[in-house]
Write a structure and sequence with these properties.
The structure holds 2 protein chains of 2 kinds. Chain A has no helices and 11 strands. In chain A, strands 2, 4, 5, 6, 9, 10 and 11 form a 7-stranded mixed sheet that branches. In chain A, strands 1-3-8-7 form a 4-stranded antiparallel sheet, with no helix packed on it. Chain A is globular, with a radius of gyration of 13 Å. Chain B is an all-beta fold. In chain B, 0% of the residues lie in helices and 47% in strands. Chain B contains no helices and 9 strands. The radius of gyration of chain B is 13 Å and the shape is globular. The chains are: A mainly beta, B mainly beta.
């Protein structure tokens, strides 16, 4: 009965590779987000989608491309991985009009070597 | 930048009430106070939010001062599992908007 799930939980890869992280929510929410938590533990928004449409796109390199096949899924594809991309990536979801609280997934720890 | 100020860390004895303060002197009339926490290696977890009245749920109580410039999150009977970083956030409710996380307060529950 997991509300927001992410796969994989851990991802170790080499510089220059392309990788994807998947997120799914079964809460019926219409908005999903990607946040990045760096080594200093700062949590920052990257993207958000509402009903499959991009509504927030912070200053993120073009190598990062979110894709939302439907409102229950928001995947994050990263091209040409760099050492600085190493971080924990969290997916979240929310429903407008219900108070604004966001529900977060367990995170994906990406390590680029 | 986050619009709140929190102490970087606090200790609380197990079984006692943990009172976490937050200053938000520039809060706007339509902004709510939200609290989240992040237990080590987990995703942030929503705790509670309020506008101006005190709020209580199964996890915590939220006390907001009358001028709304500060608030206190109360965990009534802290347990070791409450050890986490607690984030106080101000934002407009009922909107699908980003959360701007500050540094939060690292709460240590002592056995």
């Amino acid at each position: 009965d997991t509300a927001v799930s992410q796969t994989p939980k851990y991802l170790v890869t080499q510089m220059g590779n392309d990788k994807s992280i998947k997120c799914e929510q079964n809460l019926g929410h219409d908005t999903m987000y990607w946040y990045k938590q760096d080594s200093k533990k700062f949590l920052k928004i990257m993207f958000s989608y509402n009903n499959k449409e991009l509504i927030i796109n912070e200053t993120v390199p073009n190598r990062f491309s979110p894709k939302s096949p439907d409102k229950a899924h928001l995947n994050l594809h990263i091209n040409s991985l760099e050492l600085g991309d190493s971080a924990v990536y969290f997916c979240a979801s929310s429903q407008a009009g219900r108070g604004g609280e966001q529900y977060f997934g367990p995170g994906t720890r990406l390590t680029v070597t | 930048d986050a619009k709140t100020t929190q102490p970087p860390s606090m200790d609380c004895a197990e079984g006692r009430a943990a009172n976490l303060p937050c200053n938000h002197s520039t809060i706007s009339g339509n902004e709510y106070v939200y609290w989240y926490r992040q237990i080590h290696s987990q995703g942030p977890q929503y705790i509670i939010h309020g506008l101006k009245n005190n709020e209580t749920n199964e996890m915590a109580s939220l006390i907001i001062t009358e001028d709304r410039k500060s608030s206190t999150l109360i965990l009534p009977h802290a347990t070791l599992r409450d050890t986490a970083v607690y984030y106080c956030i101000v934002r407009v409710a009922n909107r699908d908007d980003k959360i701007i996380f500050g540094k939060g307060t690292r709460l240590h529950i002592l056995p």
